[in-house]
Structures are given as C-alpha cells and as structure tokens.
Structure of Ribulose-phosphate 3-epimerase:
Amino acid sequence: MFALAPSILAADFKNLGNGLEKIQKSGASYVHLDVMDGRFVPSISFGMPVIESIRSISNCVFDVHLMVEEPERYIDDFIACGGDSITIHAEATTHVSRAISQIKASGVKAGIALNPSTPLNVLDYILDQVDMVLIMTVNPGFGGQKYIDSSTRKITELRNLMNDCGLSTDIQVDGGITLDNVSTVIEAGANIIVAGSAVFQGDIEKNTKDFLRIMKNSILI
Ligand code: DX5
Ligand code: ZN
C-alpha cells in the first residue's frame, strides 16, 4: 500500500475545507495532521477542535502526528475527535510501549516517529507492536524545510531491518518531500509520503496528481 498524506500545516486555513476537497478529489487517501505543543517543538499549530470540525468533510485516513511532550495525556482526545492513526515521538515519552498499547487498545493504528538524530535501535523492542514508523526527514516543528540527505540511508536501513524480521510495517517520511525527491524515498523503502508545502503551495490538484503519478512510476521501477 502506497499513500500520499498531504499535511494541512501548509494549507490556507481560511479555505481549509476547499483544500481538503481538492486533495481528496485528486486521489490523496490520507490527510496528515501536525499537532504541535510549543514544547516538544518550538511552534504551536492546532488541536482537537480543528480536527473535529474537518472530520465530517473528508473520507481520507486522518493521520495524526503528535509533536507533543508526554503524548499519552492526549491520545484518547485525538482518537475521539476523529484520528484513524496516531503517531507519537519516541523522544517525547519515557513510556513508549505503554503509549503504543494505549493507542492500539482503542482500535486505531499506532505509529512511532523518530527525529533525524534518533537511531533506529530505539525500535528494537517495539517494532513488532507498531503499524507505522515515521522517519522525520527534517527536524520537526516547521513546514517548508529542506530534506536532510542522510535520511535516505536511514529509510533503507529500516526497510532492510523490517524485511529481515518478516515485517511489512508502513514507513512514513515527513519533511522536505517534493516532486524532485519523492522517488528517492520510495526507492529507499518508504510507502506513506507526507508533503505539506509541495502540495498546498500553488495548484493543489495538479500537485497532488503529479505526486501520485511520480509515486506510481517509482513503484513500478
Ligand atoms: C514538520 C511536520 C511536517 C510538515 C511538512 O514538523 O511534521 O509534517 O508539515 O511540511 P513540508 O512538506 O513543507 O516540509
Ligand atoms: Zn508531520
């Protein structure tokens, strides 16, 4: 399964409904929702009321990325307001395993995110319990940053590790993904592609379709 997950962080918030309709109509199957607490990351974005309000106008998978300190405090709230998949950061809680169990107990998908400098070995005793690993390809906190090149090797190593363990867990990439580098991350092993600026700046429908076309071609290679 391959999916494009446009991040609404880069959307025009006064026309959010319109942006969401455009990405869905053009073939995106996920919406990526970046929740920032002003503590785990410097910035503050949006929370439950916004997600609850847009839930009724989209059939996409609501993919909630919690850039929040001690995310276990809010897991149930983000499921209640419409999250289909909840991703927490390995760096944000002492009790990663408990937080993942908390997400899975509600029947939604659980993801674990790693900052660029966090090594893959933090996944050693948790990999078989998660539905998705999010490899951050920028330092989290802001949209519109440049892709960190060493991420490509990290994605490849993670996909190899999963193959060795017989796992087909989703690998999501997030940060600085553009039409120019999306085939690189897919060839490295990623299958869920987050893109904010590269989808929402300019012609949203064209950008979405261009992403999906390039993704499809990269999968066929
Ligand atoms: C960064 C966020 C990303 C961000 C991606 O902290 O997690 O999801 O919105 O934005 P672009 O695609 O513009 O780098
Ligand atoms: Zn994100």
Remarks:
- The chain has one domain: 3-220.
- The first helix runs from residue 16 to 25.
- The chain has eight helices and eight strands.
